[in-house]
Every structure is written in C-alpha cells, then in structure tokens.
Amino acid sequence: MHFANLDLAKPQGCGMFVLFIDDDPEDYEVFCEALKAFNSSAECLHALNGYEALNILKNVLFVLPEYIFLDVNMPVMGGEECIINLKKNPKFKDIPVIVYSTTANAGEIATFKKLGAEHFVVKPPRFEKLVDILKKILI
C-alpha cells in the first residue's frame, strides 16, 4: 500500500482528501501534482487496484476520502468491479467516484455512469488540461 506521507486520519488543514486508484505510479504522481496545483492543501492517497483500495477504505482509514478517482484497467480488481463494490457498501456509496482512464469508449463510459460514476475523465495529454479538468469537477 502506498500512503504517500499521509497520516491515516485526515490531516489538520487539509483542504481536500482524494483516493487515487490506478496501477500506474507515474499517473499517480502527475495526478497529485495537478491536484496540488489546483488545491495546495489537498492530500492524495494511492491504491494500485480496486482490491487494495477497498482494503484501505475498510481497514486502514479513519476518515473517508471526499473523492475517489478510479482507473478502468488494473490487475487484481479492475475499475468496474471496484465501483460495484463501492456503491453497494453503505459506508462508501455516497463518495463521488470519478473514472479516470485512457479509454474514450462510449460503451464503457455509459456502463460506468450506470454503475454510479459522477464523471468519466479521459486522461488528458497535458498537465495544464488536467488542472483545468480538476477545477471544473471538484467542488
């Protein structure tokens, strides 16, 4: 598990707490930089797949994240199985899930929306575009 220097309780003065679920550590680094560019007091926690994320949520964290960013294709447990598990759990069902993936497949986007995703974001090619997207969807 990757706790990214995050206290397991929400840090004092933390403006936003996000769980980022993606098997690509580089995507995690870029995402967290963009999140910090948008909100300098934000904290980002990383899980490598849906199974690890559910374990963190159920057994490790004292405070739930305000948002979950979820990749589609991951080993062990992918995005679809993860969002199904999140939305059927009363403790996690109200956390907004934003799918964050390289896929732009209309069928997959529709599937994730039906499963309860708030947004479906196609990973942008430029850092500045990601910051702009975060500004639009994170309230």
What's the SSE pattern?
EHEHEHEHEH
CATH class: Alpha Beta
Radius of gyration: 14 Å
The CATH architecture can be named as 3-Layer(aba) Sandwich
* N-C termini distance: 28 Å
Q: What's the CATH H-level superfamily name?
A: Response regulator
Instruction: Report strand order across the widest sheet.
Output: 2-1-3-4-5
Examine the coordinates and then state which fold CATH places here, giving the name of the CATH topology: Rossmann fold
Number of domains: 1
Describe the 3D structure:
The chain is an alpha/beta fold and 139 residues long. It has one domain: Rossmann fold (3-Layer(aba) Sandwich), CATH 3.40.50.2300. The protein has helices at 25-38, 50-59, 79-88, 106-114, 127-137; strands at residues 17-21, 43-47, 67-70, 97-101, 119-122. It has a 5-stranded parallel sheet, with helices on both faces. β1 (17-21), α1 and β2 form a beta-alpha-beta unit. α2 (50-59) runs parallel beside α3. The model is unreliable at 1-12 (pLDDT under 50).
Chain-wise SSE layout:
Layout (H helix, E strand, L loop, with lengths): L16 E5 L3 H14 L4 E5 L2 H10 L7 E4 L8 H10 L8 E5 L4 H9 L4 E4 L4 H11 L2
Parallel strand pairs: 1-2, 1-3, 3-4, 4-5
Helix pairs in contact: 1-5, 2-3
